[in-house]
Q: What sequence folds into this?
């Protein structure tokens, strides 16, 4: 989940407020979940 780490780093560095980054983290989680399910089939 390197992409999520980048989103977290952007928040820690103050590039965007947490409320703007939360939807991105949720979207990344959904994408990873979908890809994981595809691989396990």
A:
């Amino acid at each position: 989940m390197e992409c999520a780490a980048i989103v977290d780093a952007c928040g820690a560095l103050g590039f965007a407020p947490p409320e703007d980054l939360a939807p991105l983290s949720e979207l990344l989680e959904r994408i990873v979940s979908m890809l994981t399910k595809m691989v396990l089939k």
